[in-house]
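Quinone oxidoreductase: structure tokens wanted.
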Amino acid sequence: MAKVVRFHETGGPEVLRVEETPVGDPGPGEVRIRHAAVGCNFADTYFRSGYYPAQLPAGIGVEGAGTVEAVGEGVTGFAPGDRVAYNGSPLGAYSEARVMPAAPLFKLPDAIAFEDAAASTMRGLSATYWLAKTNPRMQAGDTILLHAAAGGVGLLAVQLAKLMGLRVIGTVSSEAKAEKARSLGCDEIIFYRREDVAARVKELTDGEGVTTVFDSVGKDTFEGSLKSLKRRGVLVGCGTASGPFPPIDAFQLMMQGSVHFTRPAFADYYADPAERAELSALWFGHLAAGRVKVEIGQRYALEDCVAAHRALEAGQTIGSSIFML
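Answer:
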């Protein structure tokens, strides 16, 4: 038996329940993992609320790190005792142990602690493909705008961007978050609740705008993000914390300076084995070598799942949130 977090109906954080369930043995193509730590991500709230579909009753969570206990028929590349991390479906990471497909697993270097892996596998791999793939024209010396720069993904993206030689303008909501973002390399800060983001971006770029905007907020920031771009810039819609992006007006994109909008999905950048290997080697290499620091701002027990989701949705977290097992 193992503790798991499940929801039987969609809604607010209160629908989450901690239950006991049998774990079982892995079938063909599957492994059984004993978790050491599990990631708590904003995307989890989308499944819980019903914004992303899930077959009910459902487990929750897509990111974890731990040790392989058993492997099923046909599994190659993994064996009992291996240290692993993962990001991907099916739901169910909020658990002490689980059986899941082997396909999403990554071998975890010994130099990376389980809690750092749980706090950064999804976030780090996401920030890696955003920066490496979504705007191929971006190069060292360019300036980018990064929304939610003090969030779990944001703090990792700041560090990766600086390793790439980029100038980073980050948006935050408080002085505490500004201090944290600056400490990890953010060059300029905009307080989005009291400043006109696009106007400040133009001031900070001598009226030119930025090469790329990474917008994980969505509805509330879309217009400002678009106006912050330089000619032929790219707006990367990488999250919808405030709600979905509005319908895209092609004429508006032209009038803004022949800019581009893309709404990338993690799965599409990690589907090709060669690209998956390239991006994961890049991320885990930086992490293992200590070139990137993982900021874990909140640690919870599974029993604290309701409070964890409330804090996440209220914007009260700094850095990554994880469940410790």
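DSSP finds ten helices and 16 strands in the chain. The chain has a mean pLDDT of 94.

Cheers.
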